[in-house]
Amino acid sequence: MSGSRSIVKLALASSPASVDSARKQPAIQVSNLSIVFDTHRGQTVAVDRVSFDVAPGEFVCVVGPSGCGKSTVLNTIAGLEVPYEGDILVEGSPVGGPRPDVGMVFQQPHLFPWKSVRRNIAHGPRMHRKSRKEANAIADDLIAMIGLKRFADAYPNTLSGGMQQRVAIARALANQPRVLLMDEPFGALDAQTRAVMQDNLLELRDRIKATIVFVTHDIDEAILLADRVLIMSAGPGRILREVAVKLPRPRSSTIMVEPSYLSLKKDCLDVIRAEGARAFNQSDSN
Amino acid sequence: MQDGTSAPQRIAVRSSGRNRRPDSARLRRLNILVGALSLPLFVGLWELASRSGAVNMVLFPPPTVVAAAVLEWIRSGQFLVDLTASLYRVTTGFMVGGALGILFGILTGQFPVMSSLLSPLFHILRPIPPIAFVPIVILWFGLSEAGKLFLVVWGVFFTVWLSTHIGVQKVDRGLIRAALMLGTPRRQMLQEIVLLGALPYIVVGLRTAVSISFYTLVAAELAGTFAGIVYRIEIAQQNMQTGQVMGGLAALGLISFIADRLFAVLAERTVWWR
Ligand SMILES: Nc1ncnc2c1ncn2[C@@H]1O[C@H](COP(=O)(O)OP(=O)(O)OP(=O)(O)O)[C@@H](O)[C@H]1O
Ligand SMILES: [Mg+2]
User: Which one of A128, A263, B202, B213 is CB 3.0 to 4.6 Å from B94, fit for a cystine?
Assistant: First the structure.
């Protein structure tokens, strides 16, 4: 994991906002976001008046039960779910579609099967009119960073799930996004691989300095990674509670046995337990 | 021997016997031997049966007579003429039908309006066997080459159209979302993602269409012509040259076998990431 420094410097140098103004303005502002889907059985309220801000460089995790609208919120911030009700500003400008300063990593890697690892990562830069040479240079930097040098010319179907997801992360980073959205990126991995990936992500995060919104339904993962955890209610999704995670960094998975960590986890679990009971009673009385 | 026909046997062989490893190795060698003997054995039996007097030798000529007929066919120069005529029909028909099939498959697969407009029509026309069009093709085109081409194109088109259509529709939405997030403009989505995503389906459709183009060739040449492998078979039948008929059939089988194999190799290279 070296050779990435050049990219990082580039990313910082090319950022239009100065550090001062960035401090004043949140990287992401979501206010009163509601999303209603038309289905054949009528309308489903997927997200109900969700509001939150994310500060520049902050790492926010969103947890909540399955179907509560986590992916929908993330997709909307990404510009994949338009139109929407409410306001979303990224770096101060409203979201109206996919944009170059927002990158996304999905639960499935969704690598282009016909492209080698290098070409997959170079795809974004190529789409932004970089020359093949430039794009490959960016890709090779990132490949070194994710430790897959040996697989630069391999096709995705020859990689393990964890390696594929690392490539997907690198591919999203190749456009040097100011905001990185991650939708349960490690959800499909086994526990061991996931732990390694979490440590990798923390390391990576220190270098790229992007703002990260990370969706998961794993409380441990959320507390380990985040500066702040947003806990969502069962559908229609609202934000129940924000929990600030003031654990020292750099962190690694060994943090999970410390008392400060455990008390944070208990706070979160209490909120989730109460919400679970409420949702259960509600569905019972209907 | 990469076709699926020998796979079930191999599986059966592997799972039988107590000392599986040495046993299966010996049995596999035996299998290869039997495979190599298959054709000579069949031809030998046929020769014996024909010459035994148990069957009518005029209707069931032995392989030696068939071989003589084929040799004569080749020596007279007629074989080359017939082969060229047939191959020309198959390849042009295949290419025109394949190109149209891919084009319309992309249109209907990618644009719902096009699908609403064309799919019902195509689905009604598709199941009609091309041979049923022979009478009307003779009315429309007479004995011209255009009529033959029409039949082959017709047969190839629908297979390729349908598989392309399905391929385009089945392109992983996730790939498209990923591509969008990476800044791929929507107007480049077709070339960047959709075509490549559909490619495996298109290739399968084209491969099926190879054998279909040979089926329709039969219909095309029976619709009246002056040269061609199937035409030669028909003429030989009228002259009671059973050896020539069988030689023609063997030639047809061999050619379409080779075409299929060539295409299989080509297909493997086309979907390069597999
Ligand atoms: N395209 C769609 N059309 C109709 N309903 C949808 C659509 N996408 C999501 N929904 C509905 O919106 C709600 C929220 O879905 P979403 O995928 O955002 O949940 P999630 O929190 O990401 O769940 P999970 O943890 O299982 O990924 C669900 O009730 C779902 O059925
Ligand atoms: Mg989800």
Answer: B213
Q: What is the ipTM of this complex?
A: 0.86
* Ligand 1 near A236 CB (within 6 A): no
CA pair distance B217, B90, nearest whole angstrom: 7
Tokens matching residue A88: 């979303």
Contact flag B180-A98 (C-beta cutoff 8 Å): yes
B273 interfaces chain A, CB cutoff of 8 Å: yes
Per residue of chain B (274 residues), what is the pLDDT tens digit? 444 444 444 444 444 445 556 678 889 999 999 899 988 899 899 888 888 888 888 888 999 999 999 999 999 999 999 999 999 999 999 999 999 999 999 999 999 999 999 999 999 999 999 889 999 999 999 888 999 999 999 999 999 999 999 999 999 999 999 999 999 999 999 999 999 999 999 999 999 999 999 999 999 998 888 899 999 999 999 999 999 999 999 999 999 999 999 999 999 899 999 8
Q: Which of residues 46-65 of B touch A (CB under 8 A)?
A: none
Domain parsing of chain B, residue ranges: 1-54, 63-270
Q: How far is Cα B217 from Cα A121, in angstroms, rounded to an integer?
A: 47
Name every residue whose Cβ is closer than 8 Å to that of residue B8 and which is 6 or more positions away in sequence: none
Domain A29-101+177-285 carries which CATH code? 3.40.50.300
Q: Which atom of ligand 1 is nearest to the CA of A69?
A: 18
A140-171 in b/e burial notation, b at 16+ Cβ within 10 A?
A: bbbbbbbebeebbeebbeebeebbbbbbbbbb
Domain extents for chain A?
Answer: 29-101+177-285
Please give the Cα distance from A104 to B148 (Å, whole number).
54
DSSP for A183-198, please give it: ESTTTTS-HHHHHHHH
Looking at domain B63-270, its CATH architecture is Orthogonal Bundle (1.10)
Specify the ligand 1 atom closest to the Cα of A70: 21
Mutational test site, ligand 1, from A33, A37, A62, max ligand atoms within 8 Å of CB: A37
Is residue B8 less than 8 Å (CB to CB) from chain A?
A: no
Classified as helix, coil or strand, A249 is: coil
Asked if omega into A113 is within 30° of 0 (cis), the reply is no
State how far residue B201 is from chain A, nearest Cα, in angstroms: 14
pTM: 0.84
Helix (H, G, I), strand (E, B) or coil at A14: coil
Region of A230 (left: φ > 0; alpha: ψ -120 to 50; beta: rest) is: beta
**Chain B contacts of A108, Cβ < 8 Å?**
174
